[in-house]
Design goal:
Blueprint lengths: L5 H9 L19 H9 L6 E3 L21 E9 L10 E7 L7 E3 L19 E2 L3 E2 L10 E9 H5 L12 E2 L1 H11 L8 E5 L3 H5 L3 H6 L7 E2 L4 H7 L3 E4 L19 H10 L2 E3 L5 H10 L3 E6 L9 E3 L3 E3 L1
Helix pairs in contact: 1-8
Length: 318
């Protein structure tokens, strides 16, 4: 099924298919070049490091919506036990981890979403199967991110704790992103990564798991369709948010035919690296104290062959 209405025209404008070759599986990761890494390194002034990942735990972010997503479950296979066939007095503990790849802080692989039977760069959706996984655009194709990260702190710009105080389903536009970059005194360059803070993570950190995952009456702030062209015009390598859904909810169409349109346009058409559940609360405090909004961002996705998302533990260094 094609995108509805004007969204199809927007898809045509932002699409990167063929830009880096007909067999490309990296998408905007191609923009993470040596110059981007050097620009990130130049952002380091004090050397202070701020982790951006949420803890992976049994009572984590996932609450069963959508169905089939599970918080981490650790099952122990050995607890302070010895191998009777090995010498020494050592004892060891081991475990098995079961979790959804997008259970916590993660990056979406380009096989994550599709429409019209096609993935990024025209690869068919049939390239993913239950047996083989994503044989094209799998999480193992995600590259280590070493670049300049730019915190776009929208609640700070508007003088509130979170965008939900302005509107429960606040739709972040390109104008909002421009205003935040201007306030930071930063010109966004190709290969940069934007860290878009909405303030939603404060609900999760304060124990309101359902509020974080479901919003207020199923309304939650996030990136809107009106931000997609901005991402393409600035040639950012990635966009990561502190929200569960990534984009604002609910969709604009009464029948929800544009549900997850930002995902579709960015991942399937642009090949943009994106991810959710990035904890930007501590970073916002540190950046405000330092008066610095650009950082060295390092994030290495787990190379899960054939997966559609990958857990990541990003770090921002000022």
């Amino acid at each position: 099924m094609p995108l509805p209405g004007e969204l199809a025209e927007l898809a045509d404008r932002v699409r990167n298919w063929g830009r880096w070759g007909d067999d490309d599986e990296l998408g905007t990761a191609n923009l993470l070049d040596d110059a981007a890494a050097r620009r990130g390194a130049a952002a380091v002034r004090s050397g202070r490091r701020v982790p951006l990942a949420v803890d992976l735990k049994r009572d984590g972010i996932q609450i069963g919506q959508p169905a089939g997503r599970y918080n981490p479950i650790i099952s122990f296979t050995a607890i302070n036990e010895r191998d009777p066939y090995a010498p020494g007095i050592w004892e060891g503990t081991d475990e098995i981890l079961t979790m959804s790849t997008c259970a916590g802080t993660h990056i979406d692989a380009l096989s994550h979403v599709s429409y019209d039977d096609q993935l990024y760069n025209g690869y068919p959706t049939s390239s993913t199967s239950a047996f083989a996984g994503a044989t094209k655009l799998g999480a193992e194709k995600l590259v280590p991110i070493v670049t300049r990260g730019i915190l776009l702190d929208l609640p700070r710009l508007k003088g509130v704790e979170g965008l939900d105080e302005v509107s429960p389903g606040y739709a972040v536009t390109g104008d909002d992103l421009d205003a935040a970059a201007d306030a930071a005194g930063i010109t966004v360059e190709p290969g940069d990564v934007v860290l878009v803070r909405t303030g939603e993570m404060r609900h999760y950190r304060e124990g309101r798991r359902n509020r974080y995952a479901l919003g207020k009456d199923y309304q939650m702030p996030g990136l809107s369709v009106q931000s997609v062209q901005w991402m393409r015009d600035h040639d950012v390598a990635g966009a990561f948010t502190d929200t569960y859904a990534y984009e604002n909810m609910p969709p604009t169409q009464p029948d929800w035919s544009d549900c997850l349109a930002v995902h579709l346009l960015q991942v399937r058409d642009m090949g943009l690296l994106q991810g959710q559940n990035w904890d930007l609360e501590d970073l916002a405090v540190v950046c405000a104290e330092a008066g610095q909004w650009d950082v060295l961002l390092t994030a290495v996705p787990e190379p899960l062959v054939g997966a559609a998302s990958a857990p990541v533990a990003p770090v921002a260094t000022l």
